[in-house]
Amino acid sequence: MRRVPSPLRPDFDRICADLGFAFAYADDEPYWDETVRYEFTMEEVECDLEAPTAELHAMCLELASRAVQDGRMLRQLGVPEMAWDAVAASWRAREPSLYGRFDLCFGGDGPAKLLEFNGDTPTSLYEAAVFQWHWLEAGRTQGWLPRDADQFTSIHEALIARWREVWPDRRLHFAAMDNVEDRGTVYYLADTAVQADRVVDVLRIDEIGLRGDRFVDLTDAPIDVLFKLYPWEWLLRDPFGHSAGMATVRMVEPAWKMMLSSKGVLPLLWRLAPGHPNLLPAFFEGEADSEALGHSWVRKPVHSREGANITIVERGAASSRTGGPYTGPAVLQAFHPLPVFDGMRPVVGSWIVGDRPCGMGIREDATAITGNRSRFVPHAIT
């Protein structure tokens, strides 16, 4: 694994416009950064990233199968008791999952370490699935990448196949908050469903209505299957999440993914497989066993997103801290510094669609905590 300078395409802004990449910049700062790239060997991708992702996913499913029968584990995962029956019914029915993203610490000099699993509403999908593949093809054509360069990304094809495989309903609804990144992600996912011969409707979360016991769209058409880019823990705090419509709609992601959309999976996975080479020691805050972490750890709220409310403690003192709105129970995870390349710290987002690893995207930052302003950098296999 190495970080290599890369040319910025002179028609970059036009390419973004043509491909609908409306959030390539954030507040006039580049979010997508193609002035550098990360290069990997095929062995690093297949053995050090793809294979561990498959194993970690299997471990998460095993964890879910145990947690769904254990009230204490459900509480530790932050699943409210009012949702336990729905989670159990969803798990027993094996309601299908679409996707997830494992965030991994990897620098090419040791096993990848799981930082967290984004099992409910992971973003940076379009960038990983489409835009970086377009960048790769341009590089191979224009000569700044070898002609035989490859990339670990079959996300796009996997999403189309997944819609065809497990959602026979021809009409699907998609909803998100009204911001440019969420809209872009939802429109991209809706497009993959269209390519799977589905009829789609896209709307804002606050445009969903209720008629009797059915959610409806703006035309009063019933919503039978809803992809929601809206976290389960938010949904369950809303009147929306307590309404009769919840009993008649199929959600993507399904209710059982509540168990895996929490950083509570980190200590529970460590309890399930202590010493696993791809896990870091982790404990719930306040547990006596957490003393094993010594004087260095990372504190993460059980529910938090985009690097918010994270504290890194080194040798007993906070070295990095982010603000944000998240409070409540937290986990403590062993501090494992991100690798540093030219002063930047990358995190590998390893994607799974259904049950199969199928691609990755890289976010990097000069700071020790990856946040919502960290840049996306493309990769190539050379």
Automatic annotation (TrEMBL):
Residues 15-381 form the Glutathionylspermidine synthase pre-ATP-grasp-like domain. InterPro entries: GSPS_pre-ATP-grasp-like_dom, PreATP-grasp_dom_sf. It comes from the Bacteria. Keywords: ATP-binding, Ligase, Magnesium, Metal-binding, Nucleotide-binding. GO terms for molecular function: ATP binding; ligase activity; metal ion binding. This is Glutathionylspermidine synthase family protein.
